Amino acid sequence: MSIIAVFNQKGGVGKTTTALNLAAALQRSGRLTYAIDLDPQAHFSSINKVTAKSGNETVLSIFNHNRPLRELVQSSPNELQMIPAHIELAKVDVLFGKGFNVVNKLNASFQAEHFTNSATPVIMDCCPMIGVLSLNAIFACHGLIVPVSADHLSAQGAFQIEKTLHALEPVLKRRVKRRYLLTRFDGRRRMAWDILKMLEEHFGADVCRTRISENVCLAESPAENKTIFEHAPTSRGAVDYQALLNELMADGFIE
Ligand SMILES: Nc1ncnc2c1ncn2[C@@H]1O[C@H](COP(=O)(O)OP(=O)(O)O)[C@@H](O)[C@H]1O
Ligand SMILES: [Mg+2]
Question: What is the pTM of this model?
Answer without folding.
Answer: 0.98
